[in-house]
Predict the structure.
Amino acid sequence: MSKSAFIKSSIAKKYWMALTGLFLCLFLVGHLIGNLQLIVKTGEEGRRAFNEYAYFMTHNPAIMVLSYLTYFSILFHAIDGIALFIQNKKARPVSYAYTKPSANSSFASRYMALLGTLVLVFIATHMSNFWWKMKVSDDVPMHSYYSTSSQDTMYLTHKGEQISTKQIREFGEIKGTQLIFKADKYTVSMERQIDDILEQNPDISENDLALIEEQKQKLKQYKDEIIAEGYKDLHTVVMEFFSKNNKSNTGVPLGLLGMLFYVFSMAVLGFHLWHGFASAFQSLGLNHPKYSPMISMIGKGFAVVIPLLFAIIPALIYLNS
Ligand code: HEM
């Protein structure tokens, strides 16, 4: 590759890395605000708010477009970053043998590729922890809670109705997050009630008997149908994941290890953002003698505050479990 072609392709790569990187920073802010609900709201209110939020995030069409843009940006940012790293290495294979890097570049800028790879490992692990369960596998229980007034466990539906476990046991079944009306269960229950009436009223009139027979015939017309959709209880999945009680069969403290892995990964993310934020503005050519120092300051603030708030979430969940 000629020197000018090399520079051009490097600039293009940096430009796209900057754009996708800044978009991912916006994603981080949104994701953080959503996740803070895990520690800000407590009890049933918190669980309900988080599960309703998770449902909205996975079903709203505009958010779904943003989600695909996020997946694309993560992949593009990572692949572009690796390509840039290899390109730079090929161009200056012995660079560090002659210079003292610590004298003219920060830790974060020298280790961006390594930090980025660690963030990618975190994202892959993180998505298999929660995202996979929420979107792909049916491994998440349905949101239910105990109602003291009904003295029963209730399922909350998307329409805001509450369906008791007793009703489900008698007339339906649960499939994933669907509450299904089962015609056979309903028919058996109704026929039992009719038999009870007949037993208690042996001298029932011909007219009433005809009416009962009519009702019995109508029962045959009922069919199984989905009566409501419930929420996935992602809140409980997250809480149990970081819980002190989350231990393997052999006693390995999975909750503690999970929490430490998340906290460590947030430190890595912080270092990656420390250099990445301000350098994205440079790559986009947005350099200004007046504003660049301010952008650099904002970037450093962002790199500290956002990962710190993210790290507090698993740490608090673990400590409060
Ligand atoms: C440490 C605190 C964090 C918690 C408790 C957390 C929790 C979650 C949960 C529960 C989901 C599944 C949501 C769903 O599919 O509806 C999710 C998705 C995701 N998380 Fe996190 N997260 C954390 C930090 C991060 C960080 C720091 C990143 C990026 C570096 C990240 C990247 C993602 C991505 C890309 C998705 C998929 C989003 C989508 O499908 O639109 N998360 N997270």
User: Anything to note?
Assistant: The CA atoms of residues 74 and 175 lie 34 Å apart. Residues 31, 35, 54, 57-58, 67, 70, 119, 123, 126-127, 130-131, 134-135, 234, 238, 262, 269, 310, 313-314 surround protoporphyrin IX containing FE (CB under 6 Å). The chain has two domains: 3-140+234-320, 144-229.
